[in-house]
Design brief:
By secondary structure, this protein is an all-alpha fold. It has helices spanning 2-16, 18-27, 32-54, 56-59, 66-90, 93-100, 103-115, 121-139, 149-171, 187-207, 231-256, 258-264, 267-280, 286-306, and strands spanning 220-221, 227-228. The chain starts with a helix and ends in a 23-residue tail after the last helix.
Length: 329
């Protein structure tokens, strides 16, 4: 499990790069749809090309569960990104983040209702502490909060998109189906296929005029790094904050389970604050540091709760208990 936690933290750190590197693009004239379109296409290409060269057998598994791949592309890739950037265009970033990062609670509730996976007391306590830490980290980042109905709707969509990211990554690659190959999709193939689906769908809506896209080739002011060509932050956001983040995330989810992985995703908020501090000069406050400590403590409690045997009934592999990760080699 230690390796899975490390990979989840890598995913969170990679996702955290999207804010500090994406915000300057928006300031340079890009709109949210334009940034999402470019980042998803870059991510799709940098992951698809190696897969075509050395992993075609992995891509072949996509045919086993096409609806899962489509749902992952629409919800976990396209909806969560497009909805979040549209949300912050209509409301405070603070509120949008708090709504989106409530996804772990949705994950816990879904596993409880759908599979009878009732969270232990330790898990519930850890969740409460982690959420309190999240509120402290994000809430201290800005003063007043602005909420609009349109922004709220986008933020809720990003919430369910993020929850789908954690749940579909596990459900689409269940290890207990590996013997028959029925319904099993390779972990890496699902990440690549989902990004290709998201990129193609957003391109189609852009070409038809349903999604207005605006990009710019003007130089970008990248904090302490000064003025750089537009493609530098675009490549970082696409290759690292999207490509690497999704691939590492999907592997981690299969290794530690969706509940723990979703709370480990709070590391993105901590990492984003740290990167913004180093790059953009946005210093961390004492409240944010205390909140980061609370998040870590809460995640540790969730991890301990996830190991509690009282919640697991091994007789039924579909009751929400964890299974070994899918072997991809």
């Amino acid at each position: 499990m230690g390796r899975g936690i490390a990979i989840a933290l890598v995913s969170g750190l990679a996702f955290a790069m999207s804010g500090p590197f994406g915000k300057p693009l928006l300031a340079a004239g890009w709109n949210p749809a334009g940034m999402v379109l470019v980042r998803v296409w870059i991510a799709a290409l940098v992951t698809l090309i190696p897969m075509l060269i050395a992993g075609r057998h992995r891509l072949a598994t996509l045919r086993r569960a096409p609806l899962t791949v489509l749902a992952y592309g629409v919800l976990a890739v396209l909806a969560v990104q497009l909805a979040y950037f549209n949300a912050i265009a209509h409301m405070s970033v603070t509120v949008a983040l708090l709504i989106e990062f409530s996804a772990p609670l949705v994950v816990v509730l879904y596993l409880w209702v759908r599979w009878g996976r009732r969270p232990s007391g330790t898990t519930a306590l850890g969740a409460a502490v982690a959420v309190a830490g999240l509120i402290a980290v994000v809430g201290a980042a800005s003063g007043g909060a602005v909420v609009t109905p349109v922004g709220l709707a986008w933020a809720v969509l990003s919430l369910f998109g993020l929850a789908a990211y954690f749940l579909l990554a596990e459900d689409g690659t269940r290890a207990e189906d590996a013997a028959t190959g029925k319904g099993t999709v390779d972990q890496f193939a699902l990440a690549v296929g989902g990004m290709v689906v998201g990129a193609v769908l957003l391109t189609l809506t852009a070409l038809t005029g349903l999604t207005p896209v605006r990009v710019s080739t003007q130089p970008v002011i990248l904090g302490e790094l000064g003025t750089v060509p537009w493609w530098i932050p675009a490549v970082v956001v696409g290759a690292i904050a999207t490509g690497l983040a999704y691939v590492a995330g999907i592997v981690a989810i299969n290794m530690v389970g969706p509940t723990l992985a979703s709370f480990l995703g709070f590391s993105e908020v901590i990492a984003a604050a740290a990167v913004a501090w180093l790059m953009l000069g946005e210093a961390l406050t004492a409240v944010q540091i205390a909140g980061a400590v609370a998040i870590v403590a809460g995640v540790i409690a969730v991890k301990r709760g996830e190991r509690a045997p009282a919640r697991i009934a091994p007789a039924n592999p579909h009751d929400g208990s964890r299974t070994p990760p899918v072997r991809t080699a």
